[in-house]
Amino acid sequence: xxxxxxxxxxxxxxxxxxxxxxxxxxxxxxxxxxxxxxxxxxxxxxxxxxxxxxxxxxxxxxxxxxxxxxxxxxxxxxxxxxxxxxxxxxxxxxxxxxxxxxxxxxxxxxxxxxxxxxxxxxxxxxxxxxxxxxxxxxxxxxxxxxxxxxxxxxxxxxxxxxxxxxxxxxxxxxxxxxxxxxxxxxxxxxxxxxxxxxxxxxxxxxxxxxxxxxxxxxxxxxxxxxxxxxxxxxxxxxxxxxxxxxxxxxxxxxxxxxxxxxxxxxxxxxxxxxxxxxxxxxxxxxxxxxxxxxxxxxxxxxxxxxxxxxxxxxxxxxxxxxxxxxxxxxxxxxxxxxxxxxxxxxxxxxxxxxxxxxxxxxxxxxxxxxxxxxxxxxxxxxxxxxx
Length: 387
Known about the structure:
Layout lengths: L1 H17 L27 H8 L7 E8 L5 E6 L5 E5 L4 E5 L6 E6 L11 E6 L3 H4 L1 E7 L4 E7 L14 E7 L10 E3 L5 E4 L6 H5 L8 E4 L16 E3 L5 E6 L5 E5 L5 E7 L24 E4 L5 E7 L2 E6 L5 E7 L2 E2 L4 E3 L7 E6 L4 E6 L15 E6 L1
Antiparallel strand pairs: 1-25, 2-3, 3-4, 4-5, 6-7, 7-8, 8-9, 10-11, 11-12, 12-13, 14-15, 15-16, 16-17, 18-19, 19-20, 20-21, 20-22, 23-24, 24-25
Keywords: Signal
Organism: Streptomyces capitiformicae
Pfam families: GSDH
């Protein structure tokens, strides 16, 4: 399979040379880990503690196994507290539970109101921070009129296909487009819900703080603007984004986000409340006053990043057009070494990566999204061991 992927990548590169200058989200169409106490009884000095928090310059990735396969347009992934993974199908508008031991798939049901088209459909998933008592599942999807966030009751005791309650819309009127719909949602350490949105190919929306497009939003589990947001009674948390699809927090509860560039630079950003990340005035590191520069950048053919996760002191970033998993080691709010690529071309387009605890990750491929070259078994969820 690796050899075949390399050939596919080479052909894709040739096509890209002929279509240089046009870019979309994927660049294919125009436009704290737990730590053990020290073995010594003597306390570590501050310098030793700081050194221990910085990951080594070089890491490693081992594919432990394929958890499941034959998924259709998988997008969002959310681990359940009782075990198992929820995965959304962008184009089928369904949510399924994956048994991580056997790989067995159980369809919870179809989410009504989803209107898949282009890059839109049923995308991000999140599990309520009060799941033990409320059994709520949150989803971000494209409807006929907008992008919206809903929550649904999950009842595993009901028959397969009937386990989702009616969706309760908690936030609507997020601008939609054929492309640039954002779609990632995640509960933060503060138990608020964060959502990434795109600017639907209208760059000025990203700079308009009254628009929900081209933003990272922060809302309560009921959909209200979260207390302490930077712009008063607004869900907007940061702005000036083109199309963020990766959200994750480090051990210090700092928020990180991956973002699709246009023709030049994809980005990894450390998100500050109220921060302006430049789009469409700046792509990549512009060094312009009033805009926050990314921590790291990539050429769009190397990344086109979607999901990110934290493990072993590094950001792990899934690449769609880049068909690789990036490791970005961190030292506080900056990189501690050059980013390192893994799995290049081995599994094709990579959509979502989620922490599986400790030094383990779940990784979702994305070959059936209309821009890949599906092979037997695509799409898959893989279990990785990383260092």
